[in-house]
Amino acid sequence: MIHLDGITLTFPGKGARSLRERISSTFGVKTLPAGRGEVTALRGIDLRVRHGEHVGVIGLNGAGKTTLLKVMCGIYTPTSGRVTVEGDIACLFEVATGFEMEATGWQNIITRGLLVGLSRREVRERTREIAEFTELGDALDRPVKTYSAGMFLRLAFAVSTSILPDVLLLDEVVAAGDQRFHEKAQRRLQQMVDHASILVLVSHSMETIRRMCQRVVWIEKGLVRMDGSAEDVIDAYTTQ
Hints:
Blueprint: E1 2-11, H1 19-26, E2 39-49, E3 54-58, H2 65-72, E4 80-85, E5 89-92, H3 105-115, H4 120-134, H5 149-160, E6 167-171, H6 179-195, E7 198-202, H7 206-212, E8 215-220, E9 223-229, H8 230-238
Parallel strand pairs: 3-7, 3-8, 5-6, 6-7
Antiparallel strand pairs: 1-2, 1-4, 8-9
Helix pairs in contact: 3-4, 3-5, 4-5
């Protein structure tokens, strides 16, 4: 389950002046007063997601949707409130995090595998399967910095989807590679969705949300504007 109790997240602005600002003020260059420029991304969010629920999160760009996912998986620590998550969790967004561009594909499989929560034994057991899924062959012997964007995405996707979590957080449905590989990737992603006890999906595609989620949360300016059935919330959102 996921419990969010009174979650507020404020990103600091000019509360602590930087060295550059102090030097500028010494020479008479105006800077923002202390305390200015803070951005509150989430405002008192209360949310419960229980076993068996597939929840879509919708809203305009900048509403706080992705920030909400990052709070759920611990990337961001809320300014106030409490986050409780039970079960293994996987965050399938920012899939490039943790890759070392000077290292080979093989080395990055190990590094990223550990970051997504695999033990060293599990990484060793799954390395060959991950490598085969990428279809990169001998390219795995080369530094990742030599890869095309498509090759890199294949590697990142293959490692990031090598686990079957209890709680799956998705920011849009991931696309990877050409059409044939994309179809293969979607089948793998569907396996993760089918296995997960909880799915939280952020998407701008109402069709995808309707297909994958029974419940939808509408975020607006860091607040929950509406929380209910997919049909009711999407209808309200699209007719506003």
